[in-house]
Amino acid sequence: MKRVIKFLSASFIFAVMVLNANLAISADYKVGFIYIGPPGDHGWNYQHDVGRKAVDEAFGGKVETVFQENVPESADAERVMTQMALAGADMIFATSFGYMDPVINVAKKFPKVKFEHATGYKTADNVSTYSARFYEGRSVVGHIAGKMTKSNTIGYVASFPIPEVVRGINSAYLAAKKANPNVEFKVIWIFTWYDPAKEADAAKTLISQGADVILQHVDSSAIMTVAEEAGVYAFGQASDMSAFGPNAHLTAIINGWAPYYVEKVKQGMAGTWKGGEQTFDGIGAGMVIIGDLNDKIPASVKKEAMAIRDGIAAGTLHSFTGPINKQDGSPWLKAGETADVGTLLGMNFYVEGIEGDIPK
Amino acid sequence: MFKLIPRENVSPVLSLLGPLFSIGFTMFVGGILFYFLGVDPFAAIKMIFWDPLMSETFSTYSIPQIFIKGAPLILIALGLSVGFKANVWNIGAEGQYIMGAIFGASFALSLYPLESFFIFPTMVLMGILGGSLWSMIPALLKVKFNVNEILVSLMLVYVAEQLLALASLGFLRNPDGAGFPGSRNLSLYSSASNSELIMGTGIHLGVLLSLLMVVFFYVLLFRHSLGFKIKLLGNSPKASGFSGDNPNKLIFLCLTLSGSLAGLAGIMEVAGPAGQINIDFNVGYGFTAIIVAFLGRLNPIGIFFAGIVMALTYVGGELTQFMLNLPAAAIQVFQGMLLFFLLSFDLFVHYKIKLKGKK
């Protein structure tokens, strides 16, 4: 019996020694990404993963990227980022708004690791944030929507009543109204970013209310499928979704994270990366990309849409240029005045002409 | 083809070996799955079960994390196990967990920014109350109208999730949060914060309570007459009635007890590791706890170990995802297999298979 115990304990110690070879990611510079959903969603997460792969390619073998999908916006996010930092990550991209407080907490514990948080507003010495001016893309699709609708009713499937989404609705509405003064917006809030069934239901409801163009600020391709079946138009969100509705898909607002990710990793390696920065880039910087235009769009409308895109990129055009009143009729922007970033980032009101209320 | 015949003598040794067998079999079949996903199965299994405990890089951080992740699982599973013993099936612990968090957090946030010693204990009690009230709905319907508690408790999870969304976007939304969903962070409100007990580990009161509850439930089930009554109700409701117990009272007790524990887990989580009420606050502890309860053989000490093993698969599973590129779904399949193999093993322990010959 003693011998057996001796043997067992010896083999246990041996196993500990063999198995305990130090774990770490091995490349010179290690970059971690955490995603709220699967990269196969053809939407939000997919584009972040495109950005990650661009980093892989840009630096050859010098940079190694790792990622984790389906990380809930809770205590789990904190643990995942801590484990990545322990595994030797030099930079971590947290790609969803809800990772904000976890990022700040983990950043405190790992002052040498650089954190980049998408769409948040809290920064620190080693935390910077980045977000895209998606509303610029909404100006382009809003214009196309205004020109393409025959029923003059445009449906809008919205996720949460947060400034980013409200900003998108306002921007799309202003552009659509300019293109077609008779246009009307119908908005349905579904309180989720990703729920194909709910998104499809909302789209069906909007179509039954007469909408023949659907805009979306939710992540799945379900709306595109519904639009294709119903013979109405829609726009891809975050990624090109034309595969799900070749006839319905007019164009897409594509998130272009790749140039930003490559640049930030380059800065990190060169030691020029800075914390506390808040990047808010749009079409000009390539963070918002307008996808291919469907041939169903008349040539004249295509030309106008491209003119809007190029004007915004060049800085000669702004999605929010006065005169604009708020929904209640009170003045917001004077003629020729453009919206400041602060108001845009905290936008919690509709512009004049949109019916209904923002849910409180 | 074949027929299942109940065994007259069920071997207690085999019955205890079930969980170990199912862990072993899960490792084996999981390894095959990982192999076909292009990942070295030995490296993956080692990373799930070994590295969080033993690797120099991770263990100092991940050992306390296993207890933190395990605490809500153990708390909820303990409550559920009492009901399961009595044949009372509360499937809705996830909803009770959410309601515990909402009740407790609402109480604390309604007093913000008042600092006082009574806030934390009252908040915890409110959390327990929230969970137990939510479980009283299926309990009352079951006792008064004989409505199936499985359906009611499960459906109420979805109601609770909607209330959670409502709270995050509406009545609990952080007024200083720039319009984004989510409540104030309770960990930044010192009177309501379930802060760490041991510096730098993250170990909080909920972890301590989960250990104390293991002892409490052990005494309750094995040293107290109530435990006997509960088991009697489960094994033979008729005998339970003859012995003068009121089955309705026991059913009510079992459901509210499990609801209270789920509520306690919820308030501990929201005031501690999670920090805030948000739309994605619940991550499935209430459902995973069902696996933990069975894996632990409905025995408090077994549940403790089962909770730790399950937490290990979470913490280690995360490592395999970013170190070895295993998809998240593969880890979920792995966790699901634990219960699957346990139940199939139980079948063979409790039944004989008799092949029917062709005539």
Give structural notes:
The complex is a heterodimer of chains A (360) and B (359). Chain A is of the alpha/beta class. Chain A has helices spanning 2-19, 44-58, 75-86, 100-109, 134-148, 163-179, 196-208, 222-230, 258-270, 299-314, 341-345, and strands at residues 29-34, 63-68, 91-94, 114-118, 127-132, 153-158, 184-189, 213-216, 233-238, 249-255, 278-281, 288-290, 324-325, 331-333. Chain A folds into 2 domains: 29-132, Response regulator (Rossmann fold); 134-254 and 287-345, Response regulator (Rossmann fold, 3-Layer(aba) Sandwich), CATH 3.40.50. Chain A contains 11 helices and 14 strands. Chain A is globular. In chain A, 50% of the residues are buried. Chain B is mainly α and 359 residues long. Chain B has a single domain (38-326), classed as Orthogonal Bundle (ABC transporter involved in vitamin B12 uptake, BtuC). Chain B has 14 helices and 2 strands, in the order βααααααααααααααβ. The A-B interface holds A 16, 19-20, 22-25, 32, 38, 66-70, 72-76, 78-80, 82-84, 86-88, 97-98, 101, 121, 160-163, 191-192, 345-346, 348, 359-360 and B 46, 50-51, 54-58, 61-62, 65, 68-69, 165, 169-170, 178-182, 185, 269, 272-276, 278-281, 283, 315, 318-319, 321-323, 325, 327-329.
Key attributes of the depicted protein:
heterodimer, A: 360 residues, alpha/beta, Rossmann fold, 2 domains, 6-stranded parallel beta sheet, 6-stranded mixed beta sheet, 11 helices, B: 359 residues, mainly alpha, ABC transporter involved in vitamin B12 uptake, BtuC, two-stranded antiparallel ribbon, 2 strands, 3% strand
